[in-house]
Design goal:
Chain lengths: ~260, ~270
C-alpha cells in the first residue's frame, strides 16, 4: 500500500533541462530547456503551430529517441528504455500517432491485436475476445476485417487509439488527435478522452494520464486540465485553463484566434 | 604526374562510403543474429507464422518458376556438353559435369539470384515503405523490436527458401539433363547416369551446398533488409535503395561463391 502511495506521488513524466532533437534528424535541437512535470491522472494539452516541435517532444516523451541533453524520467525510470528487462515499464506508455501509423498489410483486428499477441505470446484466436470487446466499444466492429487502405482518415486514428489502449497503459500520448477529423469524430474523441481522464470509461476504471498535442486550442479548453505552449524553441508551461485565458496574447493568441472573416 | 585532386577526392569518398556500408551491413548482420538467438522463444505465436509466410513466399510459391528454370538448365548444360563429350569419347563424364556445373556452381548461384530478383527486391520496397511511412516508429512505440518482427522472419524464410529451391533446381536439372541426353540418342542408361552422379558427389558437396545456400539467403536478406530498414528513408528514396541493395547482394553472392571455390580447391 505504501508502495502504491509512493508510486502515485512519482510524476508520470518529469523532464529537467531537456533538449529535444528532431525525429527525422535527432542531432538537430528543436526545443531547449524543457522543464515539465506531469502528475499521474493529469490531462495535459500541448499547443503550438506546425513546425514548432510538438510532435518531436511527444516522440521523445514516448521514448522513441533520447534527449540531447537533460534528464527525462517516466514514473521514476530514465527514458528511453531499450532493454528487455525494463520493457514492462515501457509498456505503461501508449502513443497514438497523428496519422494512425497502422500496419497496412494487417487488418484492423490484427493491427489492434498485434501488441497483445506479441507481448503476451497469444495467438489471434486467443486474443480475439479482448480485441473484439475493444473494437466494439470504439465502434470499430464493422471494419474489423478491413485493411487500413480501405478506411478513411477518421477511422485510422481511432484504430491507432484502440491499438495503443489494448495493453491498458497508465499514460497515453496523442499526437494531434483531432487534426483532420470531421465534427462527429471530434466530439467522439473529446468525450472518449474525458471519460478516460476521469476513469469513468468502461475500458479502464482508473484515471489515465493523458497528453495531447494540437495546433488549435479551442476544442481542448473544456476537456484539458493543464496546458503548455510550444513556442520559441521551448515548452512554456502555462498551467490551468484559467491561466491560459489570462496568458499573454502573444503566447496563445494565434492558437485560439477565430478564423478571420 | 600527380592525379588531379578531384579524382582522388572522388576515389576517397567512394572508398569511405564502401567501408561505411561494410561496417553497417556487418553490424546489422550481427544484431540480427543476436536477436535470433536471444529472442528465439519470444512471441512465438506472432513470429513463427511470419517465418512460415516468408518461407512460403521465398520457397513454395517460386517452385513452378524454378521447375521451369531447372528444365532449361538441364537443356543448357547437357545440350552444350553432349556433342563435345561424344566427339572426344568422354560421355562417361556427363554425370560429373552435371555435378560440377549444376550442384557446385550454377544451381546455388542461380537460385540465389532468382530469389533476390523476386523476393529480395520486394523486401527493400516493403521495408523501405514501412520506414518511410512511420510503421517502424509505430512498432518501437508498441515495444516491438523491428528487427525481431520485420527482419528475423525474412532472414529465416529467405535462407530456407533458397536452400530448398536449390535442391529442387538441382534435382530438376539433373533429371531434365538425362531426358535431353536421351532425346539426343546418347547411349547412356539411367543406372549408368545415376552411378556417374553418385561417383562425382561427395559428402563435402552436400555440406557445402547447405552452407552455401544458407549463406546466400542470409546475405541477401541482410543486405535487402538493411537498405530498406536501417536508414531513415523518404518514399522517393526507396527505388534508389532497391537498386543499391540488388547490386550489393549480387556482389556479395559472387564473392561468397568465389570463397567456396577456394574451399573446394583446398579440400
Amino acid at each position: 500500500m505504501e508502495q502504491d502511495n509512493s508510486s502515485a506521488k512519482t510524476p508520470a513524466i518529469l523532464m529537467r533541462d531537456v533538449t529535444v532533437g528532431a525525429l527525422n534528424d535527432p542531432a538537430t535541437a528543436v526545443l531547449r530547456d524543457v522543464n515539465w512535470e506531469v502528475r499521474p491522472g493529469d490531462f495535459w494539452v500541448l499547443a503550438g503551430l506546425q513546425g514548432e516541435g510538438k510532435s518531436d517532444l511527444l516522440m521523445l516523451t514516448a521514448g522513441l529517441m533520447p534527449p540531447l541533453a537533460g534528464e527525462y524520467l517516466f514514473f521514476g525510470e530514465p527514458m528511453p528504455i531499450f532493454d528487455e528487462a525494463r520493457l514492462p515499464h515501457r509498456l505503461r506508455l501508449g502513443l497514438v500517432f497523428e496519422t494512425g501509423q497502422l500496419f497496412n498489410q494487417l487488418t484492423v483486428r490484427e493491427n489492434v491485436a498485434l501488441p497483445l499477441c506479441y507481448h503476451r505470446n497469444l495467438s489471434q484466436s486467443e486474443a480475439a475476445p479482448t480485441v473484439q470487446t475493444l473494437l466494439d466499444q470504439m465502434e470499430l466492429g464493422p471494419w474489423a476485417d478491413s485493411t487500413p487502405g480501405s478506411l478513411g482518415r477518421n477511422w485510422h486514428k481511432r484504430v491507432g487509439l484502440a491499438r495503443a489502449l489494448i495493453l491498458k497503459p497508465d499514460a497515453l500520448l496523442l499526437d494531434n488527435p483531432l487534426g483532420g477529423l470531421d465534427l462527429r469524430h471530434v466530439y467522439w474523441w473529446l468525450h472518449f478522452l474525458q471519460q478516460l481522464s476521469k476513469g469513468s470509461s468502461t475500458l479502464r476504471p482508473e484515471p489515465i494520464t493523458l497528453v495531447a498535442t494540437t495546433a488549435d486550442l479551442r476544442p481542448w479548453m473544456e476537456p484539458g486540465e493543464k496546458f503548455g505552449i510550444v513556442k520559441n524553441q521551448t515548452l512554456n508551461v502555462v498551467g490551468s485553463r484559467a491561466q491560459v485565458e489570462a496568458a499573454k496574447r502573444e503566447l496563445v493568441g494565434e492558437l485560439m484566434a477565430p478564423i478571420a472573416q | 604526374m600527380p592525379l588531379p585532386r578531384s579524382f582522388t577526392h572522388y576515389l576517397g569518398r567512394k572508398l569511405f562510403r564502401f567501408l561505411l556500408t561494410i561496417q553497417g551491413l556487418g553490424a546489422f548482420g550481427l544484431i540480427t543474429i543476436g536477436v535470433i538467438l536471444k529472442k528465439f522463444r519470444t512471441a512465438r505465436q506472432v513470429i513463427w507464422p511470419l517465418v512460415f509466410r516468408e518461407t512460403s513466399r521465398a520457397g513454395l510459391r517460386l517452385l513452378p518458376m524454378f521447375l521451369f528454370i531447372a528444365v532449361a538448365l538441364g537443356l543448357v548444360v547437357i545440350g552444350q556438353s553432349v556433342s563435345w563429350l561424344t566427339r572426344v569419347g568422354a560421355i562417361n563424364y556427363l554425370g560429373t559435369i552435371m555435378v560440377i556445373v549444376v550442384v557446385r556452381e550454377l544451381g546455388p548461384l542461380l537460385a540465389a539470384l532468382l530469389v533476390l530478383a523476386r523476393i529480395g527486391t520486394a523486401n527493400v520496397v516493403e521495408l523501405g515503405t514501412s520506414r518511410a511511412t512511420g510503421e517502424v516508429e509505430a512498432l518501437e512505440a508498441l515495444g516491438i523490436d523491428p528487427v525481431h518482427y520485420l527482419v528475423v522472419p525474412r532472414v529465416i524464410g529467405l535462407s530456407l527458401g533458397i536452400f530448398s529451391l536449390t535442391v529442387y533446381l538441382i534435382l530438376g536439372a539433373v533429371l531434365s539433363g538425362y531426358i535431353w541426353a536421351f532425346l539426343q540418342n546418347v547411349p547412356l542408361r539411367p543406372a549408368d547416369y545415376f552411378h556417374q552422379l553418385t561417383g562425382a558427389l561427395s559428402g563435402l558437396d552436400f555440406a557445402m551446398l547447405a552452407v552455401k545456400t544458407l549463406s546466400f539467403g542470409f546475405i541477401i536478406s541482410i543486405v535487402t533488409c538493411y537498405h530498406g530498414l536501417a536508414q531513415p528513408l523518404h518514399l522517393e528514396e526507396v527505388s534508389y535503395a532497391t537498386v543499391r541493395a540488388v547490386a550489393q547482394s549480387i556482389i556479395a553472392c559472387v564473392l561468397i561463391d568465389a570463397l567456396f571455390i577456394l574451399i573446394y580447391l583446398a579440400a
